[in-house]
Design a protein that fits this description.
The protein is mostly helical. The chain has a domain at about 30-79. The chain is about 65% helix and about 0% strand. It has five helices and no strands. It has helices at about 1-5, 15-25, 35-45, 50-60, 60-75. Helix 2 (about 15-25) crosses helix 5 and helix 3 runs antiparallel to helix 5. It is globular, with a radius of gyration of 12 Å. The termini are far apart.
Length: about 80
């Protein structure tokens, strides 16, 4: 996902949305989040947390980028 951000692709780009779809399908192995639950999971990438720290260590702003992509995906694909 960092590569899409570094390429300047928007969070709602087809490439990033495919990556989020892959992420969502991975999550389905463990639980089936609805729209709000999936967005809440992504919020942990923005607020102070281990997830946020991890993504920020990969690339500054990556947690927010992924959050924005997940929100777009959830709003357009989940109930």
């Amino acid at each position: 996902m960092a590569e899409f951000m570094s390429q300047g692709l928007e969070a709602h780009s087809p490439e990033m949305q495919k990556a989020v779809d892959d992420h969502y399908n991975f999550i389905l192995q463990f639980w089936k989040p609805d729209r709000n639950a999936y967005k809440s999971l992504a919020l942990s990438y923005v607020v102070p947390s281990e997830y946020h720290e991890h993504y920020e260590n990969v690339a500054q702003g990556l947690g927010t980028y992924i959050y924005e992509a997940v929100v777009f995906y959830a709003d357009n694909n989940l109930k």
